[in-house]
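Pilot study result, target chain (174 residues):
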Amino acid sequence: PAEVTALPKFSTYPMAHEQIAALQPQLILATDQINKPTDAEVLAAVGIPTAFLSFKTLDDVSRAARKMGDWIGVEATAAAFADAFDAQLAAAASRTDTIAARPSVLMLIGEQPLYSFGKGSYIQTLVSLAGGTSITADLPTANPILSAEFVLTEPPDVIVMSARPPYDLAALLT
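Predicted structure:
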């Protein structure tokens, strides 16, 4: 919606503390997968409370939605979202659990750095639910930053990237 696209944009990795503080938010929601606890300390020093959420499994997504609903006073809406989310995951699992030949998949958050998800991340479950096999599933680091050499050595059949434009897809693929 236009109301959302008109909002200010800033970096959360690394966190743009000054830009965030200038917005004077009542609450900041952060994840320990990307943000550091020191980010919360910096924001608390200027009076901005920061709540850290942890997403290790897909069940954590539903729990976090319910927590956020409690924090901002929309408990019923958050519960309905969490219930629908859980139902969609179950439906996806029933459609993909018998796929034998699964494509290899690389899930990235942004192109620079090549931020991904390693062993134990809920992203591995999402890739499996979508019918794929993650090339980073066995990396021991929960949130690895990949080298171009790794991607070239383990070339995936599919790359899924969550990034804000502009990004250079051609550069990623070369």
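One observation from the pilot: The chain has a mean pLDDT of 85. A full batch analysis is planned for the follow-on phase.
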